[in-house]
Amino acid sequence: MTPSNAVGTVYLVGAGPGDPELLTRKAERLLRQTDVILHDRLVSPEILAIAGPRPRRVYVGKRCGDHHVPQRRTEELLVHFARQGLNVVRLKGGDPFIFGRGGEELDALRAAGIPAEVVPGVTAALGCAAAARIPLTHRHHARSVLFLTGQDRTGCTPSDWAAYTRRDRTLVMYMGLAPLAAFCRELCRRGLPPDWPVAVIAEGTTSHQREVRGTLADIAERVRDANLPSPALALIGKVVAGADSDLPAVAIRERQVASGVPLPID
């Protein structure tokens, strides 16, 4: 515990994509030593349980269209607890600096004079792709990978379509359910073929992981029929076509995460 007359430190910690075993050793240590945890809705109870009973837990979750705790209030809470002399873990699903608002929170902490440290986590793109056995890069198919969101903070769709229609690139679209249909239509309109491969993964790396495979032409309908939960990640590119081609269009992966038993390799 930090002395009461001192300022605490805030740790912006990545919780990874869901599987507790993908948490870093440093993140695990900080969870057990901290005074307060501010956590998102994507952080599983299994990961929170690692902290034990000692830390105070504060929920600051958001979902698309429903900011349960506004971002400014989250930043105020970080500063408030640190000024009480408490060490704080700001626990985020995935990685703090990949669509996690970690940059905004770091700016707020710097402005308030609060010591801060960033602890990276396995971002959803890496975790979900690995769990689905989809290589994001491939010597013959994808020389680069691009992370993006389907909409910007104002609700607008992307404008740099030339970057998204390269055929030697894998696209990874975060928070991709709502804009999926419009995004796929626009990719086709801009030059990608309708049969371009797409995979959408929900609850990746967890025991509830579900995958839907299809093409730009039919993936939105397949996803609607499968009733995938949000958030979900869309992977678009040639690398999808070669991944687990024996799986059905809608697959439910039984991953024995909690027991520690590895996923069988075909």
Automatic annotation (TrEMBL):
Gene Ontology biological process terms from the UniProt entry: cobalamin biosynthetic process; methylation; siroheme biosynthetic process
Biological pathway: Porphyrin-containing compound metabolism; siroheme biosynthesis; precorrin-2 from uroporphyrinogen III: step 1/1; Cofactor biosynthesis; adenosylcobalamin biosynthesis; precorrin-2 from uroporphyrinogen III: step 1/1
Key word Ribonucleoprotein present: no
Keyword Ribonucleoprotein among UniProt keywords: no
Keywords: Cobalamin biosynthesis, Lyase, Methyltransferase, Multifunctional enzyme, Oxidoreductase, Porphyrin biosynthesis, S-adenosyl-L-methionine, Transferase
Family: Belongs to the precorrin methyltransferase family.
UniProt-recorded name of the protein: uroporphyrinogen-III C-methyltransferase
